[in-house]
Write a structure and sequence with these properties.
The protein is an alpha/beta fold and 414 residues long. It folds into two domains: 170 residues, D-Maltodextrin-Binding Protein, domain 2, CATH 3.40.190; 207 residues, Periplasmic binding protein-like II (D-Maltodextrin-Binding Protein, domain 2). Helix content is 53%, strand content 14%. The protein contains 19 helices and 15 strands. The strands form four sheets. The chain has a five-stranded mixed β-sheet with strand order 2-1-3-13-6. The chain has a four-stranded mixed β-sheet with strand order 14-7-12-15, with helices on both faces. β1, α2 and β2 form a beta-alpha-beta unit. α2 runs antiparallel to α16 and α10 packs across α18. The N and C termini lie far apart (70 Å). Bound molecules: beta-D-galactopyranose.
């Protein structure tokens, strides 16, 4: 009797001791599967393991995350949400409204996030005043990447206006080089489109069009000119562009098959993972025009049962915003840290340009959320715009028709 009573007590003691020291577990849904992306997410996996965590990887291939978001919806609907999810922009608040996100304010407060994150970034991470996501980085979207040798051997400088870009592209095409490496996937069409739109509409026009959804701007002559430029660019891509993954387009610039790519600075992560050197092998410049389109990656934690999973969420959130992770991850990813107190000494010239331009644009009002990467609008609205952009790019639709469809699609999306 005595013996079994003792055994029962010690079992309870053991159970409660193990509850106190729950081992952090996390199933992490993300779409970082390209060379540079995989190298970057490996940094987080390693830090998580070094701190006693067990990581279950749930990668969903597909640049831009469309496939990952479809997988997420299926998981949540079946009542089996992943522990942590790569999620960003207004989609964070949309999931919060569904009542499925965990509150990570205790970590944010203990770690003093409010003191080290710019207000513009912190705003995206909050739901009704509490912290509901942890920011990883700041990607810039409005970049143009080039093969340095190809430009030099064709006597071409990085273009600073869209007319210069078009002239350079004509010259390259005549020399037998593919001017623009592009992957024909809707999100990539949208990425090029928003860079062109920023250049042609200007920062104020971009804000009116893609943040305010102002009908007059969506149907303006300037927007017609944006679609005209998209039609011109369609002539600069190769015949096999449809469906191509973005990192394969980056590889075309790396190997000299193509001269330029317009893509966010995750493309730099690919160049770096392949051992290419900025300023020598490849060049970076902001796309023609003023302003800065930001795309902040972040992770949201979903409401899950189990002390081990909750411990995993807390550990992940803490590590993600931690200074060492923010440095090492972003060196691989091509982005810059979300934290303002991380030294940029180890970063390359493209990253330094990004940081300087971000600072300047936040001072002059031209720091803008990327619509193409889900930072500016809710899914229904950004999806409606992208449908028109990609339909135009992949057909002979006139710019006037595209503009009319754009306004209609936005109006129908509410
Ligand atoms: C973006 C994301 C980046 C990069 C890119 C391509 O939406 O913010 O981190 O992964 O997609 O997959």
């Amino acid at each position: 009797m005595k013996r079994s009573a003792f055994a029962a007590v010690s079992t309870i003691a053991l159970i409660s001791a193990s509850a106190v020291v729950a081992e952090p577990q996390a199933e992490v849904l993300h779409w970082w599967t390209s060379g540079g992306e995989a190298k970057s997410v490996a940094v987080l996996q390693q830090e998580f393991a070094d701190n006693g965590g067990t990581w279950t990887d749930m990668p969903v291939a597909g640049g831009g995350g469309d496939a990952a978001m479809t997988a997420l919806r299926a998981r949540v609907l079946s009542g089996n949400a992943p522990t942590a999810v790569q999620l960003k922009g207004p989609a964070i608040q949309e999931w919060y409204e569904e009542g499925v996100l965990a509150d990570i304010s205790s970590v944010a407060e203990a770690e003093g996030w409010a003191d080290v994150l710019p207000a513009s970034i912190a705003g995206h991470m909050k739901c009704d005043g509490s912290w509901c996501a942890a920011p990883v980085n700041v990607h810039r979207v409005d970049w143009i990447w080039a093969n340095a040798d190809v430009l030099e051997s064709n006597g071409i400088a990085m273009p600073t206006t869209w007319d210069e870009f078009n002239a350079a592209a004509e010259k390259l095409a005549a020399a037998g080089v593919i001017p623009l490496a592009h992957g024909g996937q809707a999100w990539q069409d949208a990425t090029v489109f928003e860079a062109v739109a920023l250049g042609i509409l200007g920062a104020e026009g971009f804000h009116k069009a893609f943040v305010e959804l102002d009908e007059a701007t969506l149907t303006s002559d300037a927007m017609v000119a944006v679609f005209d430029q998209m039609r011109t660019m369609r002539g600069f891509v190769d015949a096999n562009f449809s469906g191509r993954d973005w990192n394969l387009a980056t590889a075309m610039v790396m190997n000299g098959e193509a001269a330029f790519q317009i893509m966010g600075d995750w493309a730099k992560g690919e160049f770096m993972a392949a051992g290419k050197v900025p300023g020598e092998d490849f060049l970076c410049a902001s796309t023609p025009g003023d302003g800065f389109l930001y795309n902040v990656d972040s992770f949201a934690m979903f409401e899950v049962d189990g002390e081990d999973k909750k411990a995993g969420q807390e550990l992940l959130a803490e590590l993600i915003v931690g200074p060492s992770f923010q440095e090492v991850f972003n060196l691989n990813k091509g982005s810059i840290p979300a934290r303002t107190d991380v030294s940029l000494d180890a970063f390359d010239s493209c990253a330094l340009l990004s940081a300087a331009d971000m600072q300047a644009s936040s001072e002059n009002g031209s720091l803008l959320p990327s619509y193409a990467h889900g930072m500016a609008l809710r899914g229904a609205q950004s999806g409606a715009i992208t449908d028109v952009v990609t339909a135009h790019f992949n057909s002979d639709m006139s710019s006037a028709d595209a503009v009319a469809q754009l306004a209609q699609a936005v109006a129908n999306s509410y």
